[in-house]
Amino acid sequence: MGPGEFISYAEDTEDLIQSHSLALHLYVDDTQLLSIKQLKEITSRKAALEDCVSSVLHWCAQWRLQSGDMTELIWCASRTNLQKPQTIDTTIQVGPATIKPVDNVRNLGVTLDSQLNMCNHISTVFFVQFFLSNYDE
Predict the structure, then answer these.
(1) Contact partners, residue 96, CB within 8 Å, separation at least 6
(2) Long-range contacts, stretch 102-105, CB < 8 angstroms, 24+ apart
(3) Which pTM was predicted?
């Protein structure tokens, strides 16, 4: 697929996702859905994410495109909100699969965590630099 065809596919995907009141980030063949809401609105956000992903999968099938099996879900919040009792189901359904939230995801080489404090990314970068500096000796 050339750049022109890719842009037309990406533009359709962008319109489809925005019709579900979600923001997005596209990078090459990676699509990230984003939503910023208060914790009390998590149920409506889950429904919006599930509907949107279902629509994108249907769109991919219509265009005979493969949809990746690399779906990850992360809920970001302050430490206080993350420590509140979890009485809300935070998983989402993507077709027959149940996607459980994770504490860390990688985005363009940066490890993001659910508190957005960058601790995991910093420790990973520090470890790699420490290992490489000791390996050269």
Answers:
(1) none
(2) 102/72, 102/73, 102/74, 103/74, 104/74, 105/72, 105/74
(3) 0.75
* Amino acid in the structure at residue 43: T
- Counting the structural domains of the chain, the total is 2
Measuring CA to CA, how many Å separate 58 from each of 42, 48, 52, 91, 127? 24, 15, 10, 21, 42
Residues 107 and 92 in one domain: no
3-class SS of residue 13: helix
Q: How many residues does the chain have?
A: 137
Q: Residue 132: enclosing H or E segment and its boundaries?
A: helix 119-135
Query: Is 70 found in the same domain as 119?
Result: no
Q: Distance between the two ends of the chain, CA-based, in angstroms?
A: 46
Query: How much is the pLDDT for 2?
Result: 67
Which structural domain range is residue 120 located in? Answer: 103-137
pLDDT at 115 over 80: yes
User: Cβ neighbours of residue 76 under 8 Å, at least 6 residues apart?
Assistant: 112, 114, 115, 116
The model's pLDDT over 12-62, given as tens digits with 9 standing for 90+, comes to 888 999 999 999 988 877 888 999 888 788 888 999 999 999 998 888 888
